[in-house]
Amino acid sequence: MPIADRLTLNIMFENKERTSLTELGEFGLIKHLTEHFKIAHESSVKGVGDDSAVLNFDHKQVLISTDLLLEGIHFDLAYVPLMHLGYKAVQVNLSDIYAMNGMATQITVSLGVSSKFPLEAIEEIYKGIALACNKFNIDLVGGDTSASRQGLVISVTSIGYAEKDDVVYRNGAQEGDLLCVSGDLGGAYVGLQILEREKQIFLENPQLQPDLEGKDYIIERQLKPEGRKDMVDLLAQLKIKPTAMIDVSDGLASEILHICNQSEKGCTIYEDKLPIDPMTYETARELGLDPTVCALNGGEDYELLFTIKQSDYQKLKNDIDVSIIGHITDKNEGVKMISKSNVVHELKAQGWNAFKK
Amino acid sequence: MPIADRLTLNIMFENKERTSLTELGEFGLIKHLTEHFKIAHESSVKGVGDDSAVLNFDHKQVLISTDLLLEGIHFDLAYVPLMHLGYKAVQVNLSDIYAMNGMATQITVSLGVSSKFPLEAIEEIYKGIALACNKFNIDLVGGDTSASRQGLVISVTSIGYAEKDDVVYRNGAQEGDLLCVSGDLGGAYVGLQILEREKQIFLENPQLQPDLEGKDYIIERQLKPEGRKDMVDLLAQLKIKPTAMIDVSDGLASEILHICNQSEKGCTIYEDKLPIDPMTYETARELGLDPTVCALNGGEDYELLFTIKQSDYQKLKNDIDVSIIGHITDKNEGVKMISKSNVVHELKAQGWNAFKK
């Protein structure tokens, strides 16, 4: 485009047809924008469309994943302590590497902060980053710090590796495979609702102390999630290679649909098999929420959802930290949940969509 | 920290001593924040402190670099066409891989945009990203798109590789080495001044057409910089391995100081050897700016600054796109410039500091 047009370019969209991002949603937008990019390098084993990119440099596969966290969208500084924010920013990113059945080894972190932000505040963020790095044996190997004119911006890139034959994609689920999920679901979402409630009370009356009595577990699920490296280690120890795997960031239903769509399969899950912690369950009820909906659509649990061959069932059945919630079916069967009262529901992704905020 | 403290944590800095980010500057801050991180993995050959991280997965070295670009800090949408912005975001990041003497092969791109941004605007950005990818044979292998409440945010991570023995760091310069720079300097900065001037005129009188007559070259230097992949190719072809290398993003003076500090050497450069394009020179004069200061401190040229052994001089001396601007000295000699009138100036980094904005 001619340089002289530059001053008018950003006005020109007013005369064009607009397509709303709200309609398109996050996945639609990424697909729309990237589907015409060609993969040219042999080393690009897997590009856009999975939890992390897989690159083949010699016989080891390099795993790269990146996340952008924006104030007011992904976090609210009114109730997220900065140290927890740093910790969580790393964990949610490592989680993508573990979801490939890989080992995370390095991260880079870029920060954009108001120039009025005191150094001590940034140090708090980095304390959290350091805690996460120490706990999971991660090297911080790069990054960038810049002024930001409005809010806090955090961009994390994780790098990891796996042997070529160990990498697990989203698209390998086969009919008859068992659908498994680690830990429990819905806690991070219910914890967020409690924090939002206390924030409102605090804003109305700053003298009131927040009432978090007995809610530690779900508050921690929201503020201090942990990537499931231990689950990757366990699977290796049990000599189980999942046929497909993804981490639960947007909500169980959304992730199940990713596996089913990419594997071109259907799936049936059972409501009574969903792992929901009693505190999550009771608090959801207190707040007038359906615990099952919280587990299906809450998101931010950072558990691993994976499918295994039936022949691996014996190896895993006694692990109390893994729930078998359903099985993979033919594509024509659809993606559905059998409720406790034996009603069949079609599963829909109502996971988090940043553009709807 | 106890969870219940969370609501007060972000207020608590008001009662603490504050250290101003303005004083510390970008490099100081990164150093301050990262110096206590330990490198544990054998694969982390080089972490924070160079243009890109170097990771050793088997015998190939993987190069990773990341940049965060924020509206109102790194770019002004009043005069940066979105397509150029996408192109530039990629180029400035690839430039870090080339500065390691590596080949860039993949990028990931994360975007944060206002949910009111029309799709067509994001498409323009991606058109620019695609142009840059096609031109430099880069695969887009990942990323993230999110709503943003703080204007446009772009985070790019570049991945590349080099044979272990080919990687060039900032710290290898030796006494007697020749200091070389590709292309010409100061153009991007002077181009920016023209754009800023025309923006002001436009704001005062939107009917006036911008006057960019004859300024194409320097406007392009600002809006559409190119990573110097060709220079990496040329050096390989001439069988020259620089002893140190860095890209000119913050300004020549700042980059020379990086090489000298990390190599523990001094340096002498000559004002009359600085490559300045006639259009840069004349426009700087028109604007009342010293062209030499623009070349030293302007930044955003994305040229490669490197040192070579004297024995490599014969191979390079006839290349018109490389200027030999000085030589490396003992550390005690300091880092200095001999002016056209033979006055000795100490070089200081007055490069771009985002926190000073």
Can you summarize this structure?
The structure is a homodimer of 357-residue chains. Chain A is of the alpha+beta class.
Strand order in the sheet with the most strands of chain A = 8-10-7-11-9-12-13
| Secondary-structure element series of chain A | HHEEEHEHEEEHHHEHEHHEHEEE
Number of strands of chain A: 13
Profile the largest sheet of chain A: 7 strands, mixed
What's the helix count of chain A? 11
For the largest interface in this structure, which chains are involved and how many residues does each contribute?
A: A-B, 111 and 113 residues
Overall description:
Two copies of one chain form a homodimer. The first copy, chain A, is α+β, with helices and mostly antiparallel strands and 357 residues long. Chain A has two domains: 20-166, 60s Ribosomal Protein L30, Chain: A (2-Layer Sandwich), CATH 3.30.1330; 178-356, Phosphoribosyl-aminoimidazole Synthetase, Chain A, domain 2, CATH 3.90.650.10. Helices cover 34% and strands 24% of the residues of chain A. Chain A has helices at residues 6-12, 21-34, 82-98, 119-136, 187-204, 216-223, 229-237, 252-263, 278-286, 291-297, 313-316, and strands at 44-46, 53-57, 60-70, 103-113, 139-147, 153-163, 178-182, 244-247, 266-270, 304-308, 322-329, 335-338, 344-346. In chain A, the strands form two sheets. In chain A, strands 8-10-7-11-9-12-13 form a seven-stranded mixed beta sheet, sandwiched between helices. Chain A is globular. Chain A starts with 5 loop residues before the first helix and ends in an 11-residue tail after the last strand. In chain A, 55% of the residues are buried. Residues 1-17 and 352-357 of chain A have low confidence and may be disordered. At the A-B interface, α1, α2, β2, β3 and α3 of A face α1, α2, β2, β3 and α3 of B.
